[in-house]
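Re: [help] complex structure
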Amino acid sequence: MSGESSVKDQAARDAAARVADYEHGWSADIEQEFAPKGLNEDTVRFISAKKNEPEWMLDWRLKAFRLWLTMTPPDWAKLNVPAIDYQDAYYYAAPKAKKVLGSLDEVDPEILRIYEKLGIPLEEQKVLAGVEGARKVAVDAVFDSVSVATTFREELKRAGVVFLSISEAIREYPDMVRKWLGKVVPVRDNYFAALNCAVFSDGTFVYIPEGVRCPMELSTYFRINAENTGQFERTLIVADKGSYVSYLEGCTAPQRDENQLHAAVVELVALDDAEIKYSTVQNWYPGDAQGKGGIYNFVTKRALCQGARSKVSWTQVETGSAITWKYPSCVLNGEDSVGEFYSVAVTNNYQQADTGTKMIHNGARTRSTIVSKGISAGKSNNTYRGLVRVGANAEGVRNFTQCDSLLLGKECGAHTVPYIEVRNPSAQIEHEATTSKISDDQLFYAMQRGLAQEEAVALIVNGFAKEVLQQLPMEFAVEAQKLLGISLEGSVG
Amino acid sequence: MLQIEDLHATIAGKAILKGLSLAVNSGEIHAIMGPNGAGKSTLGYVLGGRPGYEVTGGSVTFDGQDLLALEPHERAAAGLFLGFQYPVEIPGVSNVQFLREALNAQRKARGEEPLSGGEFLKLAREKAALLRMDMDMLKRPVNVGFSGGEKKRAEMVQMGILDPRFAVLDETDSGLDIDALRIVGEGINAIMRHPGKGVLLITHYQRLLDYVKPDFVHVLAGGRIVRTGGPELALELEERGYEAVA
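Output below.
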């Protein structure tokens, strides 16, 4: 292990030497663990050098950066986004503002209360809260022992599954990364995607070989070298012909991050007969009850169903962030390919969410299903925005869309904005939408049977979101259910 | 066990209960009958603690405890069950899930251990069989798509599972056909006729009382009890109507 890291250190030193040669290179001190505040070409070069990236990768990043400079942030979402000063931020390994804690006694009791409600074991709580010396213990607690984690890795290796940080993949599988990176979400796709291309810090790469069914659910949680992937995460998953993978992203435990802006890019590629199931639970800090603070989450997620009969299923439970701008989409190129989107988005207090999907039907007999459940409480605004597009040559396309909104209280908003563009008359498109409120009758009925008000709200909300929650892998689903209740605490009464 | 004294209650400022007094001892079943608008359902909601029903005077004690000071779920944990005249639908939540969470919440409040999934299902099966209800019904969302009669029967299954010490049953007989009426009547007897328990049966008709024989019958009119008698009073009401009797 130490041998490996010293090799990496050497590589970083070499990269730093190269940085110093660049025309605009500031005298980067390689011992420095973070790039200074601000964003310019040198920041991009520094990141690339730190990652020991090949020349083509640096060029790609620089092109993206130059493009980004010419772009403007999207303004079509129903979001009120405060101006973001991109120069007033760190783009690589920002110094941790989090102080190291001696024990759990020093943690905000409010956070501990939520951990408790989620049923997170004590040792894991320490890790999440950043208590000193907790890491190793927690790894043991989570995996029973480190050797279990190693066993996982070996099992994946035997199956031929590649599961690495994207930085490692760029070095070890350059051809594969080069073939697909930016092919699903082009650099110029949008302002935030371009920014991500320029400065992404790390992320995940997955390759499932032909005919392989990945032997376990993949989660960054299990890839123990995946700490601090940062605010510009990059994920690329390629499922070769006839393969299957289920990927879990995120964590139900509340996480604070000093980086306010998050702009991730996720690209999925499914070849003939391949299937990818991608599940997310997003619980970033939503800001306080007065709407102060909170993460801005501008994410671009897209899947390319390139192969015939391929299938991609997105499931998301979005409860966190002050602002969510996110549209996991499927480009259905392969004949008979299938796209699915299941979403629960909860907003409370002053949170804003504008989220949905795009189903782009280019191939014949492609099918898509969209189930969106929006839950608004407090003074929040929750928008579903979705596009179903059928190309002129796509015969026999089918789509079913269901958008349900649930309102808690009188001061929140729910909005549904469906776009339907059909250029082939053989398409069958269905759209259903409902808006409802939790009724006093339901609340009293559940309370009369013994549930406290917040338990009653959680139960009713989980019933409302059930079609989506049951798409999640079992363990995730249980935590997500608890999370919905916690996110809506104090929203009724 | 339940002591109601001079109870006054309003809904949106309108007085509905105007000095109602009633005492139910353990082991007793009382029937409350009365014309529409007399305040029968209001009494049930006030006892259950429904928001919007404001108590403006009087007291209710349940085993010496001030019932009106408790939240609805605390009243449930204390052993009070309200059988709804119009049971409420909760989409996406199965009866099994709903009742297990409710029962375990009550048990927790009483300092008892929660029931495991297996223990709960065994209990649910037993009580469903008592009311001749198919277990598949309990796996469906709460009251969603149930007929009127099925909803009432499901209420009694809920009562069986939650095993309250005191039940207020608001027109549990309405919407039931003759066979279902008998099954529900026998169910109430099996679950609630017990020396340590009490029942307040709110009904319009004598017919349920053929199966669940009350110890006392009260006539509620104008927000108070205007007459009290034995089971024969119900027969008299059936024959002569409220106006003549009350």
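Chain A touches chain B through 24 residues (CB under 8 Å).
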